[in-house]
Prior knowledge:
The chain is of the alpha/beta class. Helix content is 42%, strand content 13%. Among the domains are: 119-258, Malic enzyme, N-terminal domain (Rossmann fold), CATH 3.40.50.10380; 283-298 and 323-448, Rossmann fold. The strands form 4 sheets. It has a 7-stranded mixed beta sheet, sandwiched between helices. Strand 13 (397-400), helix 19 (412-418) and strand 14 (424-427) form a beta-alpha-beta unit. The two termini are 39 Å apart.
Amino acid sequence: MARRLVGRESLETETQRCEEKGTTLVHTKKKGYEIIRNPLLNKGMAFTLGERLQLGIHGLLPPCFVSQDVQLLRVLKNYDMKKDDLDRYVFLMGLQDRNEKLFYRVIMSNVERFMPIIYTPTVGLACQLYGHIFRRPRGLFITIHDRGHIAAILKNWPEINVRVVCVTDGERILGLGDLGCHGMGIPVGKLALYTACGGVPPQQCLPVTLDVGTDNEVRKLVQLILEQTKYGMDCLIQFEDFANINAFRMLNKYRNKFCTFNDDIQGTAAVAVAGLLAALRITKTKMCDHTIVFQGAGEAAMGIAELVTMAMEKEGLPKEEGLKKIWMVDSKGLIVKGRDQLTHEKERFAHEHQQMKKLEDVVRELKPTVIIGVAAVSRAFTEQIIRDMASFNERPIIFALSNPTSKAECTAEQCYTLTEGRAIFASGSPFDPVTLPDGRTFYPGQGNNSYIFPGVGLGVIACGLQNITEEVFLTAAEALANLVTDKDLAEGRLFPPLSSIRNTSLKLAAKIMEFAFEHNVASLRSEPSDKEAHVRSLAYSTDYDEFVVDSYRWPEDCMTVQACKL
């Protein structure tokens, strides 16, 4: 019977693929309580009698056998009994701590329903109340006092085949500020989406939270972690929710040395540019035809602006000309040349113009075709701004991308109503469909980063990419935009339905592989002829595996039974 090694998760557990049966076999040395207390191995009452006897767990479970389908229904019934989103979050995280396969089966059964619970916007409240709802630790907590012992701490993590590490210092959790180690909910939730949306196996994901003091200490600790990570040069390390100045410095310092990216900068940029590329199919224009005003000049704004200028450059517009089409408004007003205390990143987008304080005045003066909100300033897009955008443009493009929902620059209903349905709208948090008085219904496009980072992550893993360039994210943005159908656009969607996000991520991963081999940057030895099939073969399955107790055979001639006639 042909079998191939799928992976060795720890020194005591490995998985093999049985080609004839089409199933995955788990070989483990673990027994008894170790099995049912391990969320990666536990199947609950779905263990067969044979497995219970072999694994030493017979009698530790009720004398009943149920399928995963029955377990799914029971979870959904229990979920419906919870009184609010925080209770639902706690319930789902508890399930993840008990049975990972079932947890991801639940999430994937209705991604649109569960994503707002396990990630934004509910994860923001969960982080704020992390100390109150803490049940069981997930991931690694590393402090500045652990310098010199990073390798030892990483060794404590039980999984040996880690492919994705998500790191935060908790300094800028969503739009909520510095939450310290309470920010662990972000890398945990982020990596859950790598699995649910992108198919990266959960045992290959490691969440890390840094608990440090000054900015200098953060940078020193990050460098130590990058240098001492034992999982290989093609292990993806994602920076998440670092403060602006640290985020830019670390990205610029490490992007060409390690396999790393910052989702707040590059992931947000890719999903926003994908939305803009889809919107161009409605306006029948090119990217370089547009003037864009950003409300905000932080990580997200800079990342989007950089990728937009790359897209304009690809259309033939010189980069210097592309920069002139992008304007930014921060807490002190319009960013213009000569303004005091501009960072290096902001200086690139400073233009010759008189100083203006209010966004309303900036919009009225510059008459942009696109406004993008990424500053987490609630209701920043006032009624006047939205009406002005509608007066300047036949199809104004308005992106309210701030998270969570309470920080959105405007609601979908406000945008569609005030523009009489002419606006092309996208948001960072989910909004309900909007029906106008004339009967038209619009389904707001949610520009969630989960459209990008799971597919990019899986693609990077699949081809062994060791450096993630901006071209990779532009490739992902173009691929995502191309998956939006004309029907989606007619309904107001600028992104594929969330219900198809696993398929979307797999197609993005295949495009990343194509890019890597085309540009000779893949470290995978042989190029798969069917890249999408290769990617799909790596994707995580929620089907329960069969267990095989650790055993082995001797060569047949050594097992010959000696016999004699009496």
